[in-house]
Amino acid sequence: MTKHTLLAQQVDALLTEEPRLITNLANAAALLNDSLSNVSWVGFYLYDNAKNELYLGPFQGKVACMHIANGQGVVGTAFTQQKTQLVADVHQFAGHIACDAATNAELVVPLTAGDRQIGVLDIDSQQFDRFSAADQALLEDFAAVLVTHL
Fold first, then answer.
1. Which of 2, 16, 44, 66 has its CA 20 to 30 A from that of 147?
2. pTM beyond 0.85
3. What's the Cα-to-Cα distance from 36 to each of 49, 91, 130, rounded to whole Å?
4. How many domains does the chain have?
5. Which residue range(s) make up the domain with 38?
């Protein structure tokens, strides 16, 4: 068995035997918000295949954009490319969507279980260059464990 980070182990223990998507995502957002420093928003966007867009899921933070077109902004780009987006300065990201004008850095991790594209984990910070390669690895591990509960 792969040794996961403590945060991934915590989400695994927290969500064990809970089958409800919204319940699991709500607790996962709360766990991340409580565990990470210098973040202003933590949440999920879920994919709606019929509309080809991402819609707002459970989150912790300020009011957010409710719909993001597939391929648009950091969130839509991460989802379309199925590749984590680590953005040190969102103002330099072509097509950035400013749901919160105070956001300066963002990390978005796709949530995929096998061939099923669920959505993304989105984390914002008001601090420029807040997220590192170590943060990316930590949150990709977290997301890999999380999707086993979705």
1. 66
2. yes
3. 31, 22, 11
4. 1
5. 6-149
